[in-house]
Amino acid sequence: MNFGIHQQRYPFRVLLCAAVIIFMVLLMLPLAQETAQAAPGDVVLVSTDAAGAQANANNAYSSMSADGRYTAFASVATNLIPGVTGTQIYRKDLRTGEVRLVSADVAGAQGNSASIYTSISSDGRYVAFQSQAPNLVSPATTGQQAFRKDMVTGEVKLCSADAAGVQGNASSQIPVISSDGRYVVFFSGATNLVTPPSGFVQVFRKDLMTGEVKLCSADAAGTQGNNVSAVPSVSSDGRYVAFYSTANNLIPGFSGTQIYRKDLVTGEIKLCSASVGGTQGNGGSVNPVLSSDGRYVAFNSSSTNLITPATSTSHVFRKDMMTGEVLLASANAAGTQGNGGSGLPSISSDGRYVAFDSNATNLVTPATSGGQVFRKDLATGEVLLASANAAGVQGVGINLHAYISSDGRYVAFTSTSTNLVTPANTGQQIFRKELAAPYYFYFAEGYTGSGFQEYLCLGNAGANPITVKTTYLYKDGTTKDETYGVPTNSRATINVNLAAGADKEVSVKCESDSAFIAERPMYFNYEHKWTGGHDAVGATAPSLAWYFAEGYTGAGFDEWICVLNPGDLPANLTFYFQTQEEGERKVEGFSVPAHSRGSFKANQLLGGGSYQTSLKLTSDQMIVAERPMYFSYSGTADYGWTGGSCVMGSTMLSSSYYFAEGTTRAGFEEWLTLQNPGPTDIVVDAVYFFADGTTVPHAYSVQAGRRTTILVNSPTAAAGAERDVSVRLTCPTPFLAERPMYFDYQGLGHHGWTGGHCVIGATAPSHDWFFAEGYTGGGFEEWLCVQNPNAADAALTITYYPEGGGTPIVRTHNVAAHSRFTVPVNADAGANQSISAKVSSSVWVIVERPMYFNFNNAWSGGHDVVGYVP
C-alpha cells in the first residue's frame, strides 16, 4: 500500500471502498515556494523512529490525543520499529520519542494484512483503526473490520461485531473513538450487527464496555436509513454521532447527501447541513466532525445556500446545533470565502477552532499556493497557515488531512513538503505544527464571605512579561473582567476578596496568550468552627464528565460539589455516587445556569446518612467541577483535627497514579481512596517507595460501582509506621485514586496546626513540574516532595521565581533511584519569599508541594497540590 496523496478531492469524497480507502497513487507535484504569515511555532516530524530517523516510506491518516502528546498514524515504512513491516498503525509519543505498534495482537504480533485509518482517545491510551488483518483477535476475522487497541494492556477488541461478539458480515470502515475510549463508531455494510438486520451501508456505535451495538443512521423512531450513511464522528461522551447520508427518510422532507446528528440517549435526529432558517443544503455535504459536547459540527459542502452571501465551490462550515447559526470556516480573516475547494475539517473540543485543507490561495496574506492546511479561529476570524515551517514559510508539497488538538494549539497533517523541518525530509510524512492559542485555567470553587480569604496566584516561568485576563463568574450569572500583569520569571498574587467583591460565591476563568500557571489558595474559618486552608491548580478546560475518588458525608464532614458553567446554556447535571456501603446511587434534577456557578452539598444529595463515596458527575454542557470538604476529623483516636481540603476533579480515569507525598509518622493519618465506576471488580497494584530506596508491593481489590478506602498507616497496608512514603498505583482497568491526609502538624502530643489535604494522583511522571503558589514567611512551612520511580538517580534543578521579578533562585539536588525525597523550601529558597517554582529533572519524576501554616496567626492547617505539567 502506498498512501499516496491525491490532489483532486473536491467537492467531496465518499469513503465506501470495500477494502482500502483512498489515495492509492502518490502525486509528488512540485509547488512554487512562497512565504505566508503564520504564528511562528514549532514543527515536529512525527513519522520517525524512537531515535528520530524519518520513516522510509509513506505515512497517512494521523490523529492526536487531546494535549497533542500522542499521534497515531498509518505507515508502510519498515524502519519505525525493528522487524515490523507492511501497512501498520503506530503511536508516537512526542514527549519521549517512543514509537509503539498499534496494529498488533495482545501478544505483540503484527497484523498480517493492511491496517489503515486511526482515531485516538483523549489520553492516548486507546487507538481505533480498521484492518484486513485476520490475526489481531481470536477467533480470526475476515475482511475489513474495525478494532480498538489498548496501549496499556495490549488488548485488542473487535468493534465491528454484534453484542455477542460475532463479526460483521461485510466491510466496516472509518472507526472513530470517544474521548475515554469506551465507544467506537464506524460505518458498515454488515447486516448482522443489530436486530432487526440492517441494509445498505449504515453507521453504528459499539460500546466496548457492555458490547452493545446501536444503529445511529436511523430516524427518531429507530427506522434505519433507506440509503447509504457513512463517515461518522462522535461526541466526547459517545452520546451524539454525526454522519453523512443519502437516505431520504431520516427526517421528513430532507433528501440528497446531507449531514445528520443522532442523539443516542433520546433518539432525536437533527439536520446539520442546513441554513440558520433550516433550509437544507442544495449540494453534497460530507465529512462531519463534532465538538466535545456535540453542540458544534464542522463539515465540508458544495452547497451554495447555507449562508448569506451565497458560496461557491466546496467549503468548510461550522453549524451550531443549539442556535442554528452557520459560519464559514474556509474564509479569510475579513470573511471573504476561499477561492478554491476546502475540505476534511477537524474541530477543537470547544468548537472554536476548525482546521482543514484547502486549494484556496486567498485565506492568508501573502497568498499561498494550493494544497495547504489552515486553522480558522471562529471567535476572532483569524486564519493561520498550519502547513508552514517554524519561520512561517509554506510547505512546498501537498498538505492535507488536518487533525487538531483539543485546545486548538496543535495541528497534525500529512505532507509531501520537504521544507518543514531541518534536516529536510523526503516522501510523505506526518507533521505536527504548534500554533498560537490562549492558555486557560478554570476554578469552580471560590468564596469571599465572612471567614474566607481567597487568593489567585499566577506564575510566569517565561522569558517575557505576560498579561492574564481574569473573569469572575458569580452565582447570579453576572461577570466581571480584570487584567493582571505578571513580570518575567515571576508570579503575581491577587486578593480575590478585593477583586471580586465581598460576600460573593465566585468562580474564576483565567486566560492568556502566553503560557502561565494558576493556583487558587483559600484560607478559612468554616462556619466559625473549623479553620484551615486548601489550594487547587486550575483545570485547563471544561468537560462533560468529572470524577472524584474521595468523599465522606458522616458526622463531622461537610462535602460540597462546586460547578462552574462557563457556557451559554444551562448545564443539567447527573450525580453518580459510588458508595462503599451501597454501590452506585444516581441523583439528578439539578442544573447550573449559563455563565454561573452552583454549589451542591453531597450530604444532602445523598439524603443524609454516613457514606464513604466517590463521584462521577456528568453534564449535558461543558462544566468545571471541584470538591471542597470541611471537617472535624476523628480518625482512629477521636482526634478532633479541624480543617478542609479541595480537589479539582479529573476528567478521565487512568490506569496509573503516582503520589510523591505521604507519611505515616505520628500526627499524620494517610489514606488512599480508590474509585471503580466500572461494571467489573478490579485489583489495584501498589508499590510503596521509601527514602532509603526500598520498595514494598501490595494489592487492593475494588468492587464494581464502589470505592475502597485504605489506611496507609495500618500494618495491613504494607507501608509501615513512622515512614515517609510515596506510592504508585496501577491497574489494567481505568480507575481513579486520591490520597487524603489528616494531621496535627508539629503537635507533639498537643494540638499544633491541625487540618488535612487531598490530591488526585499524577497519571504519569514528567521531566518538568510547575507551581504558581509558594510562601516561606512567618507561620508557613513549604515542602517539595519528589518521587523517583526510575532505576537511575534523578538530578534535580529547582528554580524559584520571586514575586514581582528579580533574580531567580536556583538549587540542585539528587534523588536516589526508587526513592522519595523531601526539600524544605523555607531553607532551600530562603525565608520570607513569595515564590513560584519550576522543578526540572534528568529523569521522569513526580513532584508535590505540601504547605503547613498558621494563617495570620489565627487559622491553622495545610494544603497540597500536585505540580502542573504543561
Largest sheet: 7 strands, antiparallel
- Bin the strand percentage: over 45%
Estimate the helix proportion, in percent: under 10%
Give the overall silhouette.
Answer: globular
Given as residue ranges, the uncertain stretches (5+ residues, pLDDT < 50) are 6-40
Span between N and C termini?
38 Å
Q: Structural class per helix/strand content?
A: mainly beta
Number of strands: 58
Explain what you see.
Helices cover 1% and strands 47% of the residues. It has 870 residues and is mainly beta. It has a domain at 440-866. Strands 38, 39, 40, 41, 42, 43 and 44 form a seven-stranded antiparallel β-sheet that branches. Strands 45, 46, 47, 48, 49, 50 and 51 form a seven-stranded antiparallel β-sheet that branches. Strands 52, 53, 54, 55, 56, 57 and 58 form a seven-stranded antiparallel β-sheet that branches. Strand 43 and strand 44 (641-648) form a beta hairpin. The relative contact order is 0.08.
Short note summarizing the structure:
With about 850 residues, the chain is mostly beta strands. The protein contains three helices and 58 strands.
What brief labels describe this structure?
870 residues; mainly beta; 58 strands; seven-stranded antiparallel β-sheet; 1% helix
Write the layout of secondary structure elements.
Layout: E1 43-45, E2 59-64, E3 70-75, E4 88-93, E5 99-101, E6 115-120, E7 126-131, E8 145-150, E9 156-158, E10 172-177, E11 183-188, E12 202-207, E13 213-215, E14 229-234, E15 240-245, E16 258-263, E17 269-271, E18 285-290, E19 296-301, E20 315-320, E21 326-328, E22 342-347, E23 353-358, E24 372-377, E25 383-385, E26 399-404, E27 410-415, E28 429-434, E29 439-443, E30 452-460, E31 466-474, E32 479-486, E33 490-495, H1 496-500, E34 506-512, E35 517-519, E36 522-526, E37 530-534, E38 543-548, E39 557-565, E40 571-579, E41 583-592, E42 596-601, H2 602-605, E43 613-633, E44 641-648, E45 654-659, E46 668-676, E47 682-690, E48 695-702, E49 706-711, E50 725-745, E51 753-760, E52 766-771, E53 780-788, E54 794-802, E55 809-815, E56 819-824, H3 825-828, E57 835-855, E58 859-866
Antiparallel strand pairs: 1-28, 2-3, 3-4, 4-5, 6-7, 7-8, 8-9, 10-11, 11-12, 12-13, 14-15, 15-16, 16-17, 18-19, 19-20, 20-21, 22-23, 23-24, 24-25, 26-27, 27-28, 29-34, 30-33, 30-35, 30-36, 31-32, 31-34, 36-37, 38-43, 39-42, 39-43, 40-41, 40-43, 43-44, 45-50, 46-49, 46-50, 47-48, 47-50, 50-51, ...
